[in-house]
Amino acid sequence: MNINVYTETTPNPASMKFLVNKLLLNGSSDYPTKESAELSPFAKELFKFNFVNGVFFASNFVTITKTEDAEWADIEPILKEFVKGATESEIQIKTVVTDETTSFEGSETEIKIQQILHDYVRPAVEQDGGAISYKSYEEGVVTVELRGSCSGCPSSTYTLKAGIESLLKRMVPEVTEVVSEAL
Predict the structure, then answer these.
(1) Region 103-117 average pLDDT
(2) What's this model's pTM, rounded to 2 decimal places?
């Protein structure tokens, strides 16, 4: 199969999405540091570039976060070529494969929140090169974790409050606030 790689900007100026015409991963996998990439041969290779500051995989893309001193114009072609070669060589994304089936647990309200996050919010966040995980629901407050390009993105607070919080408040009246857990 001939692998094509194209890039998309994300709302986070430090992150870029590298899309391929092949499924890379069911679910998502986040490697925010070089140390966290030990179980990912693909991410480990990316961190060998001194300008790579974070790696996130989901479905058919890898979101790469660069260091502050690097310029996309300089590094994008290098990363594009690497992603193409790594995908063609079928470098593993995870050495330990876990079954990431979707199952929701908790009270009726918690299950409803998780379902909304999965069905409505997750696809939109993935479009921007990130991921969202439900953490908890307590006394009206929903706690989520933002990963990939969403982690540290300047517009993530707006996304969280104007987007996710307003959607959940509208669809689940018990929700009073949505907060993001720091990584």
Answers:
(1) 88
(2) 0.62
